[in-house]
C-alpha cells in the first residue's frame, strides 16, 4: 500500500470512529454514535448495531441517573420497555436495536449505553444525547434614575432571557461595543448573573449591569445580546431592545430662546420663551421682565397677543438649591407694530361731476413702511396722497389706504373712504342695432350715470321697460316691435335729474339678406359681362388684321 492510499484509509477510519463508536469484545462488535443532537420536542434516534448476531444475543439499553438503570431490552424476538423509568412512556426499541425517544425533554440529556450479552463476548457502547432549545427574545429593563459622578456603582439595567437550553450566555454592549464580563463587585463596572431552572427543565438567565456613569454617558445606548448553542456546534445570537440611562447630572449651561415663535415678532403674536439647562432633571426657573417678576411654568414663559409694551429685557434664572448655584440668561424682546391708518379728511366725499377730490393718508410704524392708495387691485398712489382731478362718474367707489411694514410679514393696517359723484346724467354711446325686418322685436339698453337717480324717457314709448342698477350705472331696458319710423329715425333715450339731462338716439337698420336666386342671377350677369368683353376684344383684333 502506497503512502497516499494509506493516508486516505487512515482518514476514513478516523471519520468513521468520530461518527460511530465501534466496541469489540471477543468476536462481538457494537457500533453506536458517540453523540446525537436533537431539538426539544423532536424525536431522537440512537442506533446500535451488533455483529455477529446469534440466537442467544441479548441487547439492553441503560441510562446513567447516578446509578446504571436499564430502560429497554431485546432478546430474540422479545422487545420490552422497562417500567418505572423517566422514559418508559416515550421510548421504543426497533428491530435493529435502535432506541427511539419521542418528544425529547431537556431532562433527557443523558448518556445512553447499548449493552450486549453474548457467549462470544459482552461489549457495550455509549451515546451522549444533547438537547437544544432556543431561548426567548431577551428583554432589557431600566432601573430608576442614577446620579452621575457618585463613588458607588448603580444598577443600569437588567437583561433577561427565558427558556433556553443548554445554559445561554448574556453579553452587555455600550454604544455597540461589548463590555468585558466582570463579576468582581469591587470594580466600577461589573455584572451580576442569575440562572433559574424552570419545571420544564429549561433555563432562565438574568444579568444586571452595574456602573459608575459620568455625565458623558447620558447619550450612551445600552443593550444585551444572548448567545446560545444549537445543533452542529452553531452559536447563535439575539439582541435586546436599546435603552439609555435615566441619568441625573448637574447643569453647567443655560439656554434661553424664543420657541415656536415667528420672527420678527409683531403685535398680536403669541410669544413663547423656553428656558432649559444641560442638566437632568431640569432645575426650577424664575423669570423677570425688566427686573420685575414674570409668570412662567415648567421652563416656559408665554405671552399671548403681545403689545409693544411687552418689548423688554427678559431674564431666566435656573436655581439648584442642593449645590447652591445659579445660571442666568437674558433675551431682548422687540415687538414691531403699526398704528391704525389716519385719513384726512376722515370721511367719505360727495363731489360734483368735473370737480376734484383729495385725501391724505398717514401711518406710524416701528420700521420703514409703505403707504398705498388702491381702488380694487389698482395702485393709484404710493406717497400717501390721493388726488383726483376733473372727477367723472367712473371715479366713484371705494378707495383704500394700505400701510405695511415689508420687513415684517403680515404687519399692516388699512382704512377706506367712499367717493360719490353727483351731476347731470351721462349716457354711454349706444351701438348700432340691426333688425331682420319691420315688425321684429328689438331690445335696447340705455346705460347712464347720474346722481341723484335719473329718470328715463323713451321715444317712441310703449313696449316692455325695466330699470336695473349695475354698480354706479343705471340701465333702462326697452323691448318693442320695430316700425318703419323707427328704422328711418331711430329710437331716442332721454335721461334727466335735477342737475340736467342727456339724450341719445339708437340708430336702427335692416340686415342685408341675399336670397339664393338673387345670388345666381348676379353670377350670370357677371358671366355675361365677361363674355361680352371677350367678344369685343376679338372683334378689335380682327379689325387690326384687316
TrEMBL record:
Signal peptide: 1-25
One of the record's GO cellular component terms: cell-cell junction
MF GO annotations: cell adhesion molecule binding
Membrane topology: Single-pass type I membrane protein
This protein's encoding gene: BCAM
Record-given protein name: Ig-like domain-containing protein
SMART domains (UniProt xref): IG, IGc2
Principal subcellular localization: membrane
GO biological process: cell-cell adhesion
Amino acid at each position: 500500500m502506497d503512502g497516499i492510499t494509506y493516508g486516505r484509509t487512515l482518514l476514513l477510519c478516523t471519520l468513521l470512529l468520530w461518527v460511530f463508536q465501534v466496541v469489540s469484545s471477543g468476536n462481538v462488535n457494537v457500533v453506536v454514535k458517540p453523540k446525537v443532537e436533537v431539538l426539544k420536542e423532536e424525536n431522537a434516534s440512537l442506533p446500535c448495531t451488533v455483529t455477529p448476531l446469534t440466537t442467544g444475543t441479548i441487547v439492553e439499553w441503560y441510562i446513567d441517573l447516578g446509578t446504571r438503570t436499564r430502560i429497554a431490552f431485546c432478546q430474540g424476538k422479545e422487545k420490552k420497555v422497562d417500567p418505572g423509568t423517566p422514559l418508559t412512556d416515550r421510548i421504543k426499541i426497533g428491530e435493529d436495536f435502535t432506541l427511539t425517544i419521542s418528544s425529547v425533554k431537556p431532562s433527557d440529556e443523558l448518556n445512553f449505553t447499548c449493552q450486549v450479552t453474548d457467549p462470544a463476548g459482552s461489549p457495550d457502547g455509549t451515546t451522549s444525547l444533547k438537547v437544544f432549545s432556543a431561548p426567548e427574545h431577551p428583554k432589557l429593563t431600566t432601573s430608576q434614575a442614577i446620579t452621575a459622578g457618585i463613588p458607588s456603582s448603580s444598577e443600569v439595567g437588567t437583561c433577561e432571557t427565558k427558556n433556553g437550553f443548554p445554559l445561554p450566555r448574556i453579553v452587555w454592549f455600550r454604544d455597540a461595543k461589548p463590555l468585558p464580563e466582570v463579576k468582581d463587585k469591587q470594580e466600577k463596572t461589573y455584572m451580576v448573573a442569575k440562572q433559574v431552572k424552570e419545571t420544564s427543565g429549561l433555563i432562565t438567565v438574568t444579568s444586571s449591569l452595574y456602573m459608575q456613569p459620568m455625565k458623558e454617558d447620558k447619550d450612551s445606548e445600552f443593550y444585551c445580546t444572548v448567545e446560545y448553542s444549537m445543533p452542529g456546534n452553531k452559536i447563535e445570537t439575539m439582541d435586546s431592545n436599546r435603552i439609555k440611562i435615566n441619568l441625573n447630572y448637574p447643569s453647567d449651561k443655560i439656554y434661553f430662546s424664543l420657541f415656536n415663535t415667528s420672527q420678527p415678532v409683531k403685535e398680536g403674536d403669541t410669544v413663547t420663551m423656553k428656558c432649559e439647562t444641560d442638566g437632568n432633571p431640569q432645575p426650577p426657573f424664575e423669570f423677570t421682565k425688566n427686573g420685575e417678576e414674570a409668570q412662567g411654568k415648567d421652563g416656559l414663559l408665554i405671552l399671548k397677543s403681545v403689545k409693544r409694551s411687552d418689548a423688554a429685557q427678559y431674564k431666566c434664572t435656573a436655581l439648584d438649591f442642593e449645590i447652591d448655584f445659579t445660571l442666568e440668561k437674558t433675551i431682548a424682546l422687540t415687538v414691531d407694530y403699526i398704528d391704525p391708518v389716519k385719513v384726512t379728511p376722515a370721511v367719505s366725499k360727495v363731489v360734483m361731476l368735473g370737480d376734484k377730490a383729495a385725501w391724505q393718508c398717514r401711518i406710524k410704524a416701528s420700521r420703514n413702511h409703505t403707504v398705498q392708495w388702491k381702488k380694487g387691485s389698482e395702485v393709484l398712489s404710493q406717497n400717501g396722497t390721493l388726488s383726483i382731478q376733473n372727477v367723472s362718474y367712473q371715479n366713484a367707489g371705494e378707495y383704500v389706504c394700505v400701510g405695511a411694514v415689508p420687513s415684517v410679514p403680515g404687519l399692516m393696517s388699512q382704512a377706506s373712504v367712499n367717493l360719490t359723484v353727483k351731476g347731470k346724467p351721462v349716457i354711454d354711446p349706444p351701438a348700432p342695432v340691426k333688425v331682420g325686418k319691420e315688425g321684429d322685436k328689438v331690445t335696447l339698453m340705455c346705460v347712464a350715470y347720474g346722481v341723484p337717480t335719473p329718470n328715463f324717457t323713451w321715444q317712441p314709448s310703449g313696449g316692455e321697460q325695466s330699470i336695473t342698477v349695475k354698480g354706479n350705472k343705471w340701465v333702462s331696458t326697452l323691448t318693442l316691435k320695430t316700425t318703419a319710423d323707427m328704422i328711418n329715425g331711430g329710437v331716442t333715450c332721454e335721461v334727466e335729474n335735477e342737475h340736467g339731462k342727456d339724450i341719445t338716439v339708437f340708430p336702427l337698420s335692416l340686415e342685408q339678406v341675399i336670397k339664393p336666386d338673387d345670388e345666381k342671377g348676379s353670377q350670370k350677369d357677371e358671366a355675361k359681362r365677361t363674355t361680352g368683353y371677350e367678344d369685343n376684344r376679338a372683334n378689335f383684333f380682327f379689325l387690326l388684321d384687316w
